[in-house]
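Hi V.,

Quick status before I head out on leave. The structure for the redesign project is tokenized and pasted below; the design run finished overnight.
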């Protein structure tokens, strides 16, 4: 098993109250799978992705990726592992506004101590692969939402990760642009032999994934892959 979460629990404290996001949640993802996680807003999809990627720690439970036990590692070892092995695409892209496209894509490589020349070469090739060579020196504020999403995907791929985590990657895009991003995600998933977990409300994106999991009341329900867009709509909106 490539990605394995066992008995995850996550509780937040709000004043004197505790907010339980989920309890005893488990998940297995095979190497090379593309899995969609759907569910209503507030169900905990983003929280789950943050735990799977080591961006947050659970109240209890474990996550292993390729035998690396994420929460038994030190913060330093986890940061190194995360930067090397996991690519993130965030809902609002989280591009650094003071840097242009190619500089944003270079960041993970520079953090991993690649030379500036190597980082720039890799970033340029990645921008070309997502169709943004002509926008390399434009800052995020000068890009459309779809272009920002493509820069975010290129940045997520910069360190050649094995796991891609995407949180509502088309949440704020129109239907036509969303379709372009869906195709791009599927393409990079296949061409780079990634394992991908995608939280989404978009039925079309869920429909192109290998498996759909519904997060409801702190539990993951394994659903059959939808064969039509109508089935996908029913799954995402349930």
């Amino acid at each position: 098993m490539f990605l394995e979460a066992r008995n995850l629990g996550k509780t937040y404290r709000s004043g004197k109250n505790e907010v339980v996001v989920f309890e005893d949640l488990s998940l297995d993802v095979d190497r090379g799978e593309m899995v969609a996680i759907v569910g209503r807003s507030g169900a905990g999809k983003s929280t789950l992705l943050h735990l799977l990627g080591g961006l947050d720690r659970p109240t209890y439970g474990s996550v292993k990726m390729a035998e690396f036990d994420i929460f038994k590692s030190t913060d330093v070892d986890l940061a190194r592992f995360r930067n090397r092995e996991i690519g993130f695409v965030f809902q609002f892209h989280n591009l650094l506004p003071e840097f242009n496209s190619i500089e944003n894509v270079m960041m993970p490589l520079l953090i991993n101590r690649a030379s500036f020349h190597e980082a720039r070469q890799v970033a340029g090739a990645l921008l070309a692969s997502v169709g943004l060579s002509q926008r390399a020196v434009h800052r995020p504020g000068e890009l459309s939402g779809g272009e920002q999403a493509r820069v975010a995907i290129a940045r997520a791929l910069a360190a050649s990760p094995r796991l891609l985590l995407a949180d509502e990657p088309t949440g704020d895009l129109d239907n036509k642009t969303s379709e372009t991003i869906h195709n791009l995600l599927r393409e990079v998933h296949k061409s780079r032999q990634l394992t991908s977990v995608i939280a989404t409300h978009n039925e079309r994106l869920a429909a192109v994934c290998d498996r759909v999991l519904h997060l409801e009341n702190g539990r993951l329900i394994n659903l059959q892959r939808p064969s039509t867009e109508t089935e996908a709509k029913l799954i995402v909106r349930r």
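Above is the designed sequence. The domain at 3-237 is CATH 3.40.50.300 (Rossmann fold).

G. will cover questions while I'm gone.

Best,
W.
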